[in-house]
Amino acid sequence: MSSHKPTPQFELAGVNAMLVRMGNQMRSEMPTYLKQIRDLLLRDYGELITQVTPAYNTLLVEYDPRACRMYDLQQLLEKVLAEMPYEENASCRKLVEIPVCYAASYAPDLEQVARHCKLTTDEVIEIHRATDYQVYALGFAPGFAYLGELDKRLQVPRLDTPRQQVPAGAVAIAEQQTAVYPSQSPGGWNLIGFSPMQWFNWQEEPMTPVEVGDCVRFVKVSEAEMKSLEKQGMPRT
Amino acid sequence: MSREAITGFRVVKPGFFSLLQDAGRSGYEHLGVTSGGAMDEMAASWANRLLDNPAGSTLIEITAGGLELEARTQTMLSVTGGDLNLTINDEPQAPWRSFWVSTGDRLRFARPRIGFRAYLAVQGGFQVPASLGSAATVKRDALGGLHQDGSALREDDFIAAGFLPEEQLPRQLPERFMPDYTGPVTLNIIPGYQQNEFSKEAWRQVLKQPFELDTRSDRMGARLLGDAIASPDLAMFSEGISYASVQVPPDGQPIVMLNDRQTLGGYPKLGNILPLDCYALAQRQPGTEVRFAHIGLMTAQQQMRRYLRFFGL
């Protein structure tokens, strides 16, 4: 077992929830680890545990206060975590390729990002698509995947004034992360491209193309290719 | 099946914000799907209880009034929660009771007299297809409701409901069970383990000073206005947000995270409110005075266990 295995801290999160905190850093092996814990908890303790939400280095564990008390739950979680193997450099559960069009008309902030990073727009695109990203969390809105870790050369702050409306499909970056907006919503990230891919459909199985622990690779497509993909209906994987 | 063959209710006027709700969605938070559900779960539970419906049956949450329905069936209804001046065929009706309606009857909810949200249940529950296991309407997730797209009730919507061959005895909730929605509200808070990130001074302030329910409050969160609470400057990644947690963003104005809260957030949290107090808060109009008081986890859980067992939730 690795010496880097994080020591869990248990935080009270209400009458029916605990937050398990594992360190305070973004670590690439963490998403897979959290996903494994989630699967195990729901599989083996579904009577007690109602929901498990992983994000970065935490798990929100919701339970039925009639079925167990917080102290018993904490003991159970301590035991599960002690037995769970922790793999350094864990690989992605699966890799999903996402088509992205970086054409200027779909990338309103691309030039400003390039200026800020002292790169050409082509270099920004090249760096953005050359990295494989991990899904650290899904949330904010259905299917919104927080993807990390963005190359240091591309790290830019959020916009000073968030946009009232970011279109669904906008590919965005901010600080250490990148994401695709699954639905039209307000947003403060820098928009550098557009993907015709659908990120959430509750009537399909699976509902989202990726879950925490999966990896994403952006594949550059031309505007014409993007439009034809869009016309075919949004591809899933 | 033709529409005429189905019994139910036609929406004559949708009102300000009338939503089909139930106990909410569970099990999809890890994909970013929020729970939704009746904001005043206690009143909703009573509405179903008065009709012997299973707990969590689909009902209508009417916020601030304005809903007008026409019965296209005969059945028992119940109404609980805020008193929104309900009339049936222009005759005033008191809430917290069940009653009989027949085809052609008009139900009108006007502006609130007491409270903020009324719950209208029908015998057997409104028959609405479930989206991810629930009919709960969540606009921001485009999920649930009559059209399964998160939209509120609209003019001319038709909500299917059963037909009863004969009238049943009406029931009324004994007065001692009726919540009092008037006056200031106290939110009992269970301090979370991030409590130590806040200074002693900040905590003293939270428990001492009054706040005011802000007009920007919605189904996502109740925003409170008061002298700013010093929020610790934590470099946090987003983490799962539980129901009734109290976030304090850098502006120092607390937000109680409610049914339609975003699933992840990254602000420091004081702790969590006893859910029963959030139900009471959901009946308050903006401007209401809000105070915090401390409650221990054991006491809070005892109260919630009693509530959940009573309603079979």
Mind summarizing the main beta sheet of chain A?
4 strands, antiparallel
Shape assignment of chain B:
globular
How much strand of chain A? 25-35%
Radius of gyration of chain A: 19 Å
The H-and-E topology of chain B, N to C, reads as: EEHEEEEEEEEEEHEEEEEEEHEH
| Shape summary of chain A | elongated
The end-to-end span of chain A amounts to 35 Å
Oligomeric organization of the protein chains: heterodimer
List keywords for this structure.
heterodimer, A: 237 residues, alpha+beta, Gyrase A, domain 2, Cyclophilin, 2 domains, four-stranded antiparallel β-sheet, four-stranded mixed β-sheet, 24% helix, 30% strand, B: 313 residues, six-stranded antiparallel β-sheet, 4 helices, 20 strands, 13% helix, globular, ATP-binding (chain A), Cyclophilin-like_dom_sf (chain A), hydrolase (chain A), PxpB (chain A), CT_C_D (chain A)
What does this structure look like?
The complex is a heterodimer of chains A (237) and B (313). Chain A is α+β, with helices and mostly antiparallel strands. Chain A contains five helices and 13 strands. Chain A folds into two domains: 8-83, Gyrase A, domain 2; 95-232, Beta Barrel (Cyclophilin), CATH 2.40.100.10. Chain A has helices spanning 30-44, 70-83, 110-117, 121-130, 223-231, and strands spanning 8-12, 17-22, 49-55, 58-63, 95-101, 132-138, 145-148, 163-166, 170-174, 177-180, 185-187, 190-194, 215-221. Chain B folds into two domains: 8-177, no CATH class; 185-311, Cyclophilin, CATH 2.40.100.10. Helix content of chain B is 13%, strand content 29%. Chain B is built from four helices and 20 strands. Chain B has helices at 41-49, 200-208, 275-281, 297-311; strands spanning 8-14, 17-21, 59-63, 67-72, 75-83, 87-88, 91-92, 97-101, 106-108, 114-122, 158-160, 185-191, 211-213, 221-225, 239-240, 245-247, 255-257, 264-265, 269-273, 289-294. A seven-stranded mixed barrel of chain B has the order 12-19-16-17-14-13-20. In chain B, strands 7-6-9-4-1-11 form a six-stranded antiparallel sheet, with no helix packed on it. In chain B, strand 6 (87-88) and strand 7 form a beta hairpin. Chain B is globular, with a radius of gyration of 20 Å. At the A-B interface, strand 1, strand 2, strand 3, strand 4 and strand 6 of A face strand 15, strand 19 and helix 4 of B. Chain B: This is Allophanate hydrolase. Chain B: Keywords: ATP-binding, Hydrolase, Nucleotide-binding. Chain B: InterPro entries: CT_A_B, Cyclophilin-like_dom_sf, PxpC. Chain B: GO terms for molecular function: ATP binding; hydrolase activity.
